[in-house]
């Protein structure tokens, strides 16, 4: 566990590290497994943890963005898809 590996960390740091780890796992499950399973066309969606960390717009813990992605992901689906054309 994180606490066993980092006994010198305060409780707040353990909580934040655990929370951030679980957010990534949940996003990966929702995007890579759930969405790709229920869509009729396989979309090559994947999650790359750490992407954008060196970008100017990057901010830590965007809970509202993460919440929107996990619970309102259907807003990302376009109303029209053109295949082969």
Structural notes for this entry:
With 85 residues, the protein is an all-alpha fold. The chain has one domain (2-76). It has three helices and no strands. It has helices spanning 2-5, 11-38, 63-71. The termini are far apart. The mean pLDDT is 74.
C-alpha geometry: elongated
**Number of helical segments with 4 or more residues:** 3
Output the structural class: mainly alpha
Q: Work out the oligomeric state of the chains in this entry.
A: single chain
Radius of gyration: 17 Å
Total domains: 1
SSE string, helix = H, strand = E?
HHH
Summarize the SSE layout with pairings.
Layout: H1 2-5, H2 11-38, H3 63-71
Question: How would you summarize this macromolecular structure in one to three sentences?
Answer:
The protein has 85 residues and is mostly helical. The protein contains three helices and no strands. The model has no long low-confidence stretch (mean pLDDT 74).
Keyword list:
single chain, mainly alpha, 85 residues
């Amino acid at each position: 566990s994180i606490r066993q590996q980092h006994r010198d960390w305060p409780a707040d740091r353990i909580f934040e590290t655990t929370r951030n780890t679980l957010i990534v796992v949940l996003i990966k499950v929702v995007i890579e497994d759930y969405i790709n399973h229920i869509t009729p066309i396989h979309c090559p969606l994947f999650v790359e943890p750490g992407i954008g960390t060196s970008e100017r717009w990057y901010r830590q813990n965007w809970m509202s963005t993460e919440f929107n992605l996990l619970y309102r992901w259907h807003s990302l689906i376009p109303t029209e898809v053109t295949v082969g054309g």
